[in-house]
């Protein structure tokens, strides 16, 4: 009895390496359909080279924005790459492995009052400013969402500070990590409100305003990673106006001021500062003003943007 050689008759009979290359050539929707055809295809679709290919294809693009990994790409597992790609594509697999909604219970921060917050691009790190002007962060990929300190309070712990916070993911600099891990600049506009004596109804401390720029980087550690902050610039601003909008891009900071009290006649203005040259404790840094004399004082500027 002669033996009959077995010849491949379909995709499932192809070698694993060839199936991986076939899946990499598919469009996204076709790939999702193919991985659901049978158990074998589903198992093959978990191969790391496939998700590394999709990671480079969909997360390195500039639309809707480049992804900044929080650790070297070679340290991501196949499952982590799959999760990142699915998050970017906004697509769920049939097993319901990645639900559309997730309710988070954050650990109690150092203050009951959160004055501002920002979800860093990528969805893992949540930054929030507390009442004393410091910034804390929460790692949303951990089971216990505990607030950890990132930047210190600019004044004493008992000060009541209004904080505006902006993040620049596209800063121009020559000292970015070679492994393309997470790094961004964090801008803080901090306004310390005056304190009043309840008996004499007079301020016991004057208001104060300062602006800070921090370089935030990812540090890989035994706990899965953390964020580190390095102060790049800190300088004061006139405390005779209420800060409104705030924006940061590359080496420039823009913010709007609404003058109050005896200085109200100065109206409102937008200020642009080169923060790289303004790192000082005095008011001697150069600023560019755009005064808005003809505007209605009852309608302050709510948003400005550096571009």
UniProtKB/TrEMBL annotation:
SMART domains: FBOX (SM00256). Pfam families: F-box. Residues 8-54 form the F-box domain. It comes from the Eukaryota. This is F-box domain-containing protein. It comes from Cyclocybe aegerita.
